[in-house]
Each structure stands twice: as C-alpha cells, then as structure tokens.
Amino acid sequence: MIDMLVRLYDLPDSSELYREVAAKGVTLRRARAFEKHTVAAFARGFSEKWASEVEVALTRQPVACFVATREKKILGFACYDTTMRGFFGPTGVAEESRGLGLGKALLMKSLEGLRETGHAYAIIGGVGPREFYAKACGAIEIPGSDPGIYGDILP
Ligand SMILES: CC(C)(COP(=O)(O)OP(=O)(O)OC[C@H]1O[C@@H](n2cnc3c(N)ncnc32)[C@H](O)[C@@H]1OP(=O)(O)O)[C@@H](O)C(=O)NCCC(=O)NCCS
Question: Residue 155 domain-assigned?
C-alpha cells in the first residue's frame, strides 16, 4: 500500500461533475456533527479502522468529511486531514452506487477542502485503487512510501 501525491494547485474544475451528480438526485455536502454515528456506521461496513477515522473527521470544524446522500440515505463518504495532516482518506462508495461519479466527486470536494486550508499538495494515504486516483486527480506514486505510516498498526 503506497501513498500518492496530488498537486492541488493544478486541480481541474469539477463543476460539471458536481452538476452531473446533482442531476442524479445526489447531494454532496459536508457531514454534520449530529450525523457522526450514521457516517461511522456506514464506514464500519468497509473497516472498523475507517469508522475510527470518520469519528475523528466529524470532530473537526469545519467537518473534514464529505458525504453523498439521496433520500436520507448515505451512498458514500470521504475524509481528509484525518489520518495525518494533509492526507486524503478514507473513502468508500456503497457497491450499488459505484460507477456514478460519486467516488470522484467526493475526492474532488475533499481535495478542494484541503486546498482551501492552504495545502499545495495532498497525500492519498495507503492506496488502494492507484489507477482511480491517477485518472481522477493526476496523483503520482510516492517512492519509498510503502508501508509509510502504516507499518505498525494495532488491530
Ligand atoms: C474507489 C471507489 C471509491 C470509487 O468510487 P466510484 O463512485 O465507483 O468511482 P467513480 O464512479 O467516481 O469513478 C470515476 C472514474 O474512475 C474509474 N474508477 C472507479 N473505480 C476504479 C478503480 N477501482 N480502478 C480504476 N478506475 C476506477 C471509473 O471508471 C470512472 O472513470 P471515468 O471517469 O472514465 O468514467 C469505490 O470503488 C470504493 O468505494 N471502493 C472500495 C473502497 C476503496 O477502495 N476506497 C479507496 C481506499 S484508498
């Protein structure tokens, strides 16, 4: 699992992607503090560790976690500045909602959030689907980053 680097000053304009997602009836927004249990339960479906990270993201102001929702149901989530400062992740989209652009839209919202807080680069921690990140935001692999910070993990 390597880390990847993203140039935030070169991010493409994602407004068209956000319009497409909205046209599918999906809302993209920051999660709210009073939804912490709901978002953490969704993330727990992927990993207990991701639920822990969501709980950290939901204590930030502004909340460092975006969600994709439709009809009061969560379809996907993405956190940033949570595992480490400047890191993107974890992220996940429900299996039945994949391929609709939600993963990319959640990624871009989070990267824009990092850019707004003054970061020039973001790090995608412990990837994962490398081609997805390379294609979506031009991420490149960081040499020597495996296992990086993930070398000594408690269960
Ligand atoms: C990775 C993940 C978030 C992608 O979500 P998604 O909503 O299906 O992705 P999108 O629909 O936004 O896909 C955007 C583009 O990336 C491509 N893509 C999606 N998943 C990909 C993958 N695993 N590998 C390569 N390309 C991928 C899509 O084909 C699409 O291409 P297009 O722009 O040419 O149409 C989702 O598959 C997921 O939740 N996986 C399990 C959890 C996970 O691995 N999280 C990442 C941990 S680092």
Answer: no
Q: State pTM to two decimals.
A: 0.98
Report how far ligand 1's centroid is from the alpha carbon of 62 (Å).
26
Tens of pLDDT, residues 16-31:
999 999 999 999 999 9
Residue pair 72/42 in contact (Cβ under 8 Å)? The answer is no
Q: Which atom of ligand 1 is nearest to the CA of 106?
A: 12
Strands 87-93 and 121-127: parallel
- Predicted confidence band at 10 (pLDDT cuts at 50, 70, 90)? very high
The answer to whether position 78 is within a domain reads yes
The ligand 1 atom at the shortest distance from the C-alpha of residue 99 is 11
Q: How far apart are the CA of 135 and the centre of ligand 1, in A? A: 10
The rounded Å distance from CA 99 to ligand 1 centre is: 7
